[in-house]
Amino acid sequence: MTDDRAPSAPAADGFPPAPGSHDPEALRRRALDALLTARARTATLTDSVEDGELTAQHSPLMSPLVWDLAHIGNQEEQWLLRAVGGRQALRPEIDGLYDAFEHPRSARPSLPLLAPAEARTYASDVRGRALDILEAAPLHEGGRPLERAGFAFGMIAQHEQQHDETMLITHQLRSGPAALTAPAPPDPTDAGSLPGEVLVPAGPFTMGTSAEPWALDNERPAHRREVAAFHLDTSPVTCGAYQRFMADGGYTDPRWWAPEGWDMVREHGLTAPLFWHRDAGQWLRRRFGVTEPVPEDEPVLHVSWYEADAYARWAGRRLPTESEWEKAARHDPATGRSLRYPWGDTDPTPEHANLGQRHLRPARAGAYPAGRAPSGAGQLIGDVWEWTSSDFLPYPGFVAFPYREYSDVFFGPGHKVLRGGSFAVDQVACRGTFRNWDLPVRRQIFSGFRTARDA
Length: 455
Description:
The chain is of the alpha+beta class. Helix content is 29%, strand content 13%. The strands form five sheets. It has a four-stranded mixed β-sheet. Strands 1-4-14 form a three-stranded antiparallel β-sheet, covered by helices on one side. It has a three-stranded antiparallel β-sheet with strand order 5-6-7, with no helix packed on it.
C-alpha cells in the first residue's frame, strides 16, 4: 500500500487528517478508546440475553450471536496478534469456522462453534494480547502499512463495531420481550421552518479521501467529481410520507417498481416496510421487542432499495447518486474544501448526530441542527442508512488493502451503495466518506432514504 495512509500534509481532498493522526501517543489513545468502546458494546449485546439465545439462529439471514462474538475475536487475533504483533496463533484450528466467506449465515448454527463461555474467554484473551501489542507498536508514518497511523487497530475497531450493528439487527429480528433499552433521541427544535429540499449547485468537488488515516480501501483515493445541480430532501423521507405512498396503492401498482422489485413484492406479498403491521386502522411496528404506533415524523426504516426507488418514482423524484449524496454532505462552497463530516472536521458529538446505539431509533426529521451540512441538508450522518441509486464500484486508482475480500469481491451491479450510517453505527465506522453496500432486496438492515431531483 502506498504512503497516503498517513500523509504529512493535507492531501488532495483538502481536509486535514484526523486529530492526532501524526502523534503516535495520540493515535495510541484513540485506538485504545475505539477498541474499548467497541468491546463494551459487544458485551452489552451479548450479555443482555441468555446463552440459549446466543446460540440460537433468530433468522436465516443472520448468524447466531455467539458466532459474531467469536468471529470478532478471531479477526482480532489474525490481524493484531499475528499480522501486526508476529505472535504465534492462539486458535488456528477455528479460523475456518469463523471465515465469513467459507460458511453462509444460514449454515453457521450447524458448525461446531465455541460455546458462549469459551467464546467470551477467547475474545478476552485475544484482547489482552492485542492491547500489549498496541502499547508497543510504533504507529509512526514511516512504519509498516498495517501499523502506520494505527491503521490495523482502527480497522479492527471498525470491524467489531460493524458486527455490533449486525448483532443489533439480530436483536431486532429475535422474538420475545425487549432485551435492550435506550432513551429517546432529542426532538427537533426548528423542523417546521425547514425547507423541504435544498439546492446543491453544479460544479466539481473532491470525493473520497487520501488523508483520513483509518479510511478503508473503498473510500480511497481522493478524486475530483463534476456534479450537475440538483435538489435534495433536507431530511430523510418520513414514515408519514411513506404511508401516503402506501395509501395511494404504492405496493399494488407496477408502474413504480423496477422489474425485480415488482417480482419481490408479488413473491413475498409486501404491503409495508418490514416489521410494520396494520391493526384497528392503525399502522404499528415492532421495535426491539416493543410494539408501538408508527411515528409519522420519524425517518422510515427497514425498506429495501426497491422500495426506496419505487417511492421516489411515485413522488416524481429519484434516489440521489452516491456522488450527489457525498457532495451535499461534505462540500463547503465557501472554501471549496470537502469536510470530514457535514458540520466540519471535528469528530461527532451527541449534538451532531444519532450514532453509537445511544438511542434505539432514528430521531424525528429535522433533529440535530448542529449536524447540518453547508448545503442545508440535515441528518446525513446517523439515524438511517440512506440508499443511493449507485452501484458499488471502485474509485479511480483503487487499491485493495489489506485484503481483497473487504471490498473488491463485492464491486459490481449486484450491490447498491448506502451512505451516512444509522443510529446503530459507531462514529469510528461512520464518516463523510464511508461507503456501505448491500443487496437491493435487503430490508432487515437499518436503511431509509431521501430523494432528489434535477435542478
